[in-house]
Amino acid sequence: MKKIDPVVLAFFTAFAITIYVLETLIPKPLPFLKLGLANVVVLLLLWKGNSLAGFIVLLSKCILGGIFTATLLSPMTIISLGAGFAAFGAMYLSLRLKSGLSLLGTSILGATLHNLVQLAIVNGLLLHSTAAWKLLPLLLILGIFTGLITGYLAHLLYQQEIIKKYLE
User: Fold this and answer.
1) The whole model's pTM is what?
2) How far apart are alpha carbons 77 and 96 in whole angstroms?
3) In whole numbers, what is the pLDDT of the chain averaged over residues?
4) Domains in the chain, please, with CATH?
């Protein structure tokens, strides 16, 4: 695990929270559909071996993002944290075990698992029925789609010299 300068960590955290808050302003065709663009920062940190920094950014993004969007005490925070931790864990293990997944593959893994865990949490905490599982095919497709977008944006962001400098 690489060490990261606290100032750089603060920058990446602020960057992720800003994206998180701005993304809430984007109109959604479905209430549960969110691209998860702030996860680009978490993905980049994980990809470059800064897993602790990635985890801190993930946790901060969920909690501080919830405060800034006035959703901290809503079920959305529990869903976001639970699914975020699961996706983070899967991506971390995939990278740690050298599964051979590319940045895009790792992103798709995280996004798809995030959607699956969200569905399980909604089903277990809110609905207490199997009705939510009818959304499974849609959420798998959306996970692949959003994972591709997030992974591609992470790739583009990493091409920026200033970002590369702080991640190396």
Assistant:
1) 0.90
2) 27
3) 91
4) 6-167 (1.10.1760.20)
